[in-house]
Design brief:
- With 572 residues, the chain is of the alpha/beta class.
- Helix content is 29%, strand content 23%.
- The chain has 17 helices and 26 strands.
- A 9-stranded mixed sheet has the order 2-1-11-10-12-13-14-15-16, with helices on both faces.
- Strand 22 and strand 23 (465-467) form a beta hairpin.
- Helix 3 crosses helix 4 (76-92), helix 3 (44-53) crosses helix 5 and helix 8 (231-240) packs across helix 9.
- The longest helix is centred in the N-terminal third of the chain and has 17 residues, at 76-92.
- The model has no long low-confidence stretch (mean pLDDT 94).
- The structure holds adenosine-5'-triphosphate and magnesium ion (MG).
- Adenosine-5'-triphosphate binds next to strand 14, strand 20 and strand 21.
- InterPro entries: AMP-bd_C, AMP-bd_C_sf, AMP-binding_CS, AMP-dep_synth/lig_dom, ANL_N_sf.
- Keywords: Acetylation, ATP-binding, Ligase, Nucleotide-binding.
- One of its GO terms (molecular function) is acetate-CoA ligase activity.
- Residues 50-416 form the AMP-dependent synthetase/ligase domain.
- Its EC number is 6.2.1.1.
Length: 572
């Protein structure tokens, strides 16, 4: 553990004194910003777009869209009109009403954002899907949620098995020369002539907003329902954690098919009236750096897997671009390896701030704030208004430095409202009275920093020692030849489990037994003898979810020759 390795950079941050605010903050102090104090009713889309379109931000850039073949810019005033138009199409042609599930299944394009905001304006519950989902994944989600409408593209429409989905009334296609039938409608044709005026459906704070199916790292994805009340926390964390200020140009790299791509790719930035960059197309170090350079991105939110790929791409790529606009960098989705923070500090001149949260929590809960010292490998401290503890399996609070179940006191504003069609699953998170039990294993140190160890199911018991896979993986990637590593426990008659590491090498390295041995010794001397992998297997790439998480359950199933379970969210 390295103490205070990276002290905060001086400057004006939205949250300057964490300890003080933590003592005094109550969530109702955060609600002052929104107009519902006059109306009693809310709509997130109004607060995120129309409110700004009607004030001094009307002509401020809300969206920079960037794709190798399309580059467009929209102000808040533009987005108000265009989302109204989309809302009118959904209402008049799709008969969408409050509470209906409207799915969006398309690559990131401006139309995706118009449609999503338009649907929310009608009080509908939006369900975003990754464009890469295949037929079964699409069917499961539309069936489970009884979706009424879906918006898609000509390339993807064949993956919607509409004859097996009785609740699905309308399929809107966004594209040219769309052949209409009684179910299929040409979205753009109606959109072009739709009115720019739309009456917003005012809803209650507990009314449905978005239905996100989880990433599927540990099993079958669950439909997590969030309500409009979550905007309080989207807004407040965009201020505190993203540190968004009036002049910032913000880029979140996540797809809206994953919760980060909505909570922090749409809601947080627009609720705070920020300029938001959306980049379409696939990951490529050149295109990513080019995006930062082109728009002068100041605040950048991405994921460890992307940072690791940029790191593996090497500094010669980084040096081709001007990245000096960056002032604040954040990460989410997986543990952030210390090596990645060191690299980031070197090449960008900034610390990368890890943030911890889950689909179910709706917004960030435990974070490294700009005003705090960063301990490398720690996910930071609970935000003001958030009480986090480590519980044993009986629900007792453990003292510092003991590994256990990471749990949060119930009742933060963006907590999930339910799991769709699965009350039993919902209840399973709340077996210890007032605590939400996350399923992640962690410990807290004496200074209140939290340290992620792994999913509870992934923690390895080897020769009587509990080893978190994250520690081993982080040590492994410090070895120059290792690009990425996934570590599992493999059953062993003597040791209970042994540590097995799956390793993807940096381009140019050869897969040899000598290299395996060098890697083993590196972990043994750098971490601990019992933490060194007894088995190492090289693989071209690790199985990952679409949101970039290493799927250890798949590695384990491969290893044991067991069925791999639901693979709908796995990358190609
Ligand atoms: P499923 O619940 O379907 O198995 P998932 O848990 O991967 O999938 P998400 O809700 O997208 O789905 O991911 C949340 C999980 O990601 C957390 O429970 C945690 O295990 C991991 N995670 C997120 N952020 C961090 C972080 N900063 N450090 C460590 N782990 C993180
Ligand atoms: Mg999960």
């Amino acid at each position: 553990m390295e103490l205070k390795a990276f002290p905060p950079v001086k400057g004006k941050h939205n949250l300057e004194n964490y300890e003080d605010l933590y003592q005094h903050f109550k969530w109702d102090q955060a609600e002052k910003e929104f107009s519902w104090h006059q109306t009693g009713k809310v709509n997130l889309a109004y607060e995120a777009i129309d409110r700004h379109a009607e004030n001094y931000r009307a002509n401020k850039v809300a969206l920079h869209y960037f794709h190798p073949s399309r580059k467009e810019t929209y102000t808040f005033k533009d987005l108000k009109k265009l989302s109204n138009k989309a809302g009118n199409v959904l209402k008049k042609v799709g008969n969408v009403k409050k509470g209906d599930r409207v799915f969006i299944f398309m690559p990131r394009s401006p139309e995706l954002y118009f449609a999503l905001i338009g649907a929310i304006k009608l009080g509908a519950i939006v369900g975003p899907l990754f464009e890469a989902f295949m037929e079964d994944a699409v069917k499961d989600r539309l069936h489970d949620s009884e979706a009424k409408v879906i918006i898609t593209t000509p390339e993807l429409v064949n993956r919607i098995p509409h004859t097996e989905l009785p609740a699905l009334e309308t399929i809107f296609i966004v594209g040219e020369d769309v052949q209409e039938d009684d179910k299929t409608k040409d979205f753009l044709q109606y959109f072009r002539s739709a009115s720019i005026e739309l009456d917003i459906e005012w809803v209650d704070r507990k009314d449905g907003l978005i239905l996100h199916y989880t990433s599927g790292s540990t099993g079958k994805p669950k439909g997590v329902l969030h309500v409009h009340n979550a905007m309080i926390q989207h807004y407040q964390t965009a201020k505190w954690v993203l540190d968004l200020q009036e002049d910032d140009v913000y880029w979140c790299t996540a797809d809206p098919g994953w919760v980060t791509g909505t909570s922090y790719g749409i809601f947080g930035p627009w609720l705070t009236g920020s300029t938001n960059v959306v980049a379409g197309g696939r990951f490529s170090p050149d295109i990513w750096y080019k995006t930062i350079e082109t728009f002068g991105v100041t605040v950048w939110y991405s994921a460890p897997t992307s940072f690791r790929m940029l790191m593996a791409a090497g500094d010669t790529v980084t040096e081709k671009y001007t990245l000096s606009s960056l002032r604040h960098i954040l990460s989410v989705g997986e543990p952030l390896n210390p090596e990645v923070i060191r690299w980031g500090h070197e090449v960008f001149g900034h610390r990368i701030h890890d943030t911890w949260w889950m689909t179910e929590t709706g917004a960030q809960l435990i974070c490294n704030l700009p005003c705090m010292d960063i301990k490398l490998g720690s996910m930071g401290k609970p935000l003001p208004g958030i009480e986090a503890v480590i519980l044993d399996d009986n629900g007792n609070i453990l003292p510092p430095n003991q590994m256990g179940n990471l749990a949060i006191k119930k009742g933060w504003p963006s907590m999930m409202h339910t799991i769709w069609n699965n009350q039993e699953k919902f209840n399973s998170y709340f077996q210890h009275d007032e605590w939400y039990v996350s399923g992640d294993s962690a410990y807290m140190d004496e200074e209140g920093y939290f340290w992620f160890q792994g999913r509870v199911d992934d923690v390895i018991m080897t020769a009587g020692e509990r080893v978190g896979p994250f520690e081993v993986e982080s040590k492994l990637i410090e070895f120059p030849a290792v690009a990425e590593a996934g570590v599992i426990g493999k059953p062993d008659p003597i040791r209970g489990e042994i540590i097995k590491a799956f390793i993807a090498l940096v381009d140019g390295y050869k897969e040899t037994d000598e290299l395996k041995e060098e890697i083993r010794i590196f972990v043994k001397t750098g971490l601990a003898a019992h933490a060194a992998p007894r088995e190492i297997e090289f693989c071209e790439k690790l199985p990952k979810t679409r949101s970039g998480k290493i799927m250890r359950r798949v590695l384990k199933a491969w290893e044991l020759g067991l069925p791999t379970g639901d693979l709908s969210t796995m990358e190609d």
